[in-house]
Automatic annotation (TrEMBL):
A GO term, aspect molecular function: phosphoribosyl-ATP diphosphatase activity
Top-level taxon of the source organism: Bacteria
Phosphoribosyl-AMP cyclohydrolase domain span: 27-99
Recorded metabolic or biological pathway in which this protein acts: Amino-acid biosynthesis; L-histidine biosynthesis; L-histidine from 5-phospho-alpha-D-ribose 1-diphosphate: step 3/9; Amino-acid biosynthesis; L-histidine biosynthesis; L-histidine from 5-phospho-alpha-D-ribose 1-diphosphate: step 2/9
Annotated protein name in UniProt: Histidine biosynthesis bifunctional protein HisIE
Main location: cytoplasm
Keyword annotations of the record: Amino-acid biosynthesis, ATP-binding, Cytoplasm, Histidine biosynthesis, Hydrolase, Multifunctional enzyme, Nucleotide-binding
Documented EC number(s): 3.5.4.19, 3.6.1.31
Listed Pfam families: PRA-CH, PRA-PH
Keyword Magnesium listed: no
Annotated segments matching region Phosphoribosyl-ATP pyrophosphohydrolase: 110-199
Subcellular compartments: Cytoplasm
Gene encoding the protein: hisI
Amino acid sequence: MKMEIKYDNNGLVPAIIQDATTKNVLMLGYMNEEAYKKTIETKKVTFYSRSKQRLWTKGEESGNFLNLVELKNDCDNDSLLIQVNPAGPTCHKGTGNCWGEENTPNYGFFSTLETIIAERVANKDTAKSYVASLFSKGINKVAQKVGEEAVETVIEAMDNNDALFLYESADLLFHYLMLLQAKGFTLKDIEAELKGRHK
């Protein structure tokens, strides 16, 4: 894993730590050449602590190590991106990252939709919310709606109207997210199931 690294005048290079699975940024630290070499050798991310003036392996006291997955430098060779599998919270304050956030998976707009669905179900405003209204009719109605949308998606797949196919596909995914929540699950559970099947 030999690479060119341009250290600054203090012999340090910034190291951005990213969860290899969730892709969330967890923290920023600094490495000198010795810390870099120790990280490669032990597969545990080691920094140079500017305050303690010594090498510091993340997790050496807490046990919350950052297990090295991949390390690469940027186009100017003056900063590192280190992907890790964290063994516990990254921040010493107990949060998933050093910005006070949990290190949870994010599926882009699908995660936003999951949050919106959960909020509308909790608000139970059946007069204004389609989601709340459908949930109020019970899980059988939610499941039935997924079945209807699946059939409509299949029908449009056999036609040549791509716009209608995408429209029905969006309806299907939206209602499937609702069904997942009705059963007490999220996309994270589906991801775990698929990962378990992957060989």
